Amino acid sequence: MTIQNTHNNVKPTLAAARHASPERHATAARHAARDRHGAAARHGSPERTVAPSPQTSRERNVAATTHTPTTVPLGNFRHVTALTPSFSIRPNETISLYRARMDNRDVVLRTLKENASNSEKQHFLGFASFLGRLGPHPFIPALLGVVSVRSPLVMVMEELRNRDLLGFLWRCREDTTSHGITEKRIVIMAGQVASALEYLHNQGCIHGNIGARSVLVGGDLTAKLWGLGSAYHRTQVNTAGLVEDVELKKWEAPEVLARRTASNSSDVWSFGILLYEMVTLGDPPFAQIMSTELLQYLQRGKTLKRPTNCSNALYSIIKSCCNWNPQGRPSVTDLIRILHAGERSANESTALRASEPLNLEKYTREAGYGEAFNFAIF
């Protein structure tokens, strides 16, 4: 998908939109996780653009139009309602989120405020262009279209019904009957995230913000890697401070805590922390350690303790990812192979349980919120 825009104008040009294939069911997702280059994602319909109508009622229709000399209606956004923020998925002050229907599918409208400055518009369209250049992948949320012909600017994203993985894990913690998650499901979902991460790395892109807050979950429990704002910032000039503010310290590799450059290996460290979050149903890592003391803690040879309901095999993967030495960590390609092999022996009959109920205030404190930027910006 290509998204073209010009930034020498106050008004951006029309962008292109492309349909991506719908979510795969669990079996197909596992096969795609083993596809190193995301070949299963190469689907799309002819490019098109969408533009909103000026209606602002709670249930409004937003017209979608083609970019032709005379604008022709192409479809509609229907049933547009505000999307309630979750703990992890919160727009920044310039963005509003809406749920809508488009072409008989659920979508999320990521909408830039109408009074946005030129630089905010440029950043918004730049991020859309970045997503377009990444191209489709079965385990990265699909960019379905961009409204750039008039204000407000809108990105049309596929909706993943279970939203962010952190919130999903917390719901599993509270209700194992309707949201029971087994070790095998964790291994499958982790393989999907690893497939997306390998795809990014193959394009020379470091994610830099991996965690349960940066993964979205579909209705069929397909996991898709999001939280790409940090990756986009790394492609820009003079944004080192912005990148630093996006990440939570307790998810960072020790070399990044020591102010060295992020790398594919530091993403692998954070992936190990993600596995820890998954098997604990959303516990924070290094709960008893202050973020400011974490580097010294790790320098003493300390590491994540094995969770109560974590198998030896899964804990071995976590430890290998969280190796102090970056060269001692597996590549993402190796992780995909290990996770695929682990599917066969992983427990698929017993739902994981948390050691204690969720205490949001305690979580916020132990995860280091308030010490760094909190949220994966959608």
TrEMBL record:
Compositionally biased intervals (Polar residues) = 1-11
Q: Where are the annotated segments for Disordered?
A: 1-69
Keyword Iron attributed: no
Q: What's the domain of life for this entry?
A: Eukaryota
Any single Gene Ontology cellular-component annotation: plasma membrane
- Per UniProt, which keywords does this protein have? ATP-binding, Nucleotide-binding
Gene3D superfamilies cross-referenced by the UniProt entry: Phosphorylase Kinase, domain 1 (3.30.200.20), Transferase(Phosphotransferase) domain 1 (1.10.510.10)
Question: One Pfam family, short name please?
Answer: PK_Tyr_Ser-Thr
Q: Name one GO biological process term.
A: cell surface receptor protein tyrosine kinase signaling pathway
Gene Ontology molecular function terms on file: ATP binding; transmembrane receptor protein tyrosine kinase activity
Domain annotation Protein kinase: ranges: 66-343
Entry's PANTHER family?
SERINE_THREONINE_TYROSINE KINASE 1 (PTHR24416:SF631), TYROSINE-PROTEIN KINASE RECEPTOR (PTHR24416)
Q: What is the recorded name of this protein?
A: Tyrosine-protein kinase STYK1-like
Q: Which organism is it from?
A: Cyprinodon variegatus
